[in-house]
Design a protein that fits this description.
This protein is mainly alpha-helical. The chain has one domain. The chain is built from eight helices and no strands. The longest helix is centred in the N-terminal third of the chain and has 47 residues. Belongs to the oxidase-dependent Fe transporter (OFeT) (TC 9.A.10.1) family. Pfam families: FTR1 (PF03239). Keywords: Membrane, Transmembrane, Transmembrane helix.
Length: about 280
Amino acid sequence: MTTQILFIVWRESVEALLVIGILNAWITHNAAYSAGRRYLWGGVLAGLAVAIVLAYGLLEASAVMSGESLEYFQAALVLIAAGLIVQMVFWMRKHGRQLKRELQQGVESAAESGRWWTVTILAAIAVAREGSETVVFLYGMFAAGPAVSTWTVVGASAAGFALALLTYGVLQLGGRVLSWRLFFSVTEAMLLLLACALFTTGIGDLASLGLIPYMDPVWDTSFILDDMSRFGGIVASLTGYRAMPDPATVTVWVVFWGGVALLFARAKRVNKAGEAAPATAATQ
């Protein structure tokens, strides 16, 4: 669980730092518009406030529920978290290349028109999006895994944010040590594995509620890696691995990875079509 918390906070914080860094860099390089920086940080604070309110709302909702209703709520949040992770991966694949240009155009337009509140909105949306995703992901993991202490959560989150600051600093070196492309390629694979783990756990929760029948295991690989062992448990929590999966679990894996493969194929076709359009227009 600690590893999951650290990874999610690290990855989401780097994305938020990327957006804030792009906006701040433009303001820094255009000294005449330095007044816009307070609007930028106002947006950051507003985004954090949205994430905090969401976290409070989820905790309060959990507090007023008990028994089977709480189990249904938590199972739903686990599945929602899995879906959001997949959505985030493909959103970044679609918008990542144009993100810097779009943000710079937005802040430049705000500076020229004097409507700095648009920078506040840009920053608030970015931070609120990453912060809200972090809240939902973490809640989903808490619902899916064993109970952890408050200090464990705080410590892992702080370590994740510190690692994000370090990673962002390394990425700013311009690819000499670590490139943005490599960072996103590796972390998107890790995120998809984590989404599969949450999806698998969520379906298991539905089975425990009697909505999906339990059946005999399809195979047994516990002699290679037992998911009840310490190391096997870490692998299971990060990837969805099960040593003795039943047919429902195997179906989950096939549906999940089959769906991801289809989304990758669709994204590839869209990218090719987008690259071909300018070339076609240029020849006309």
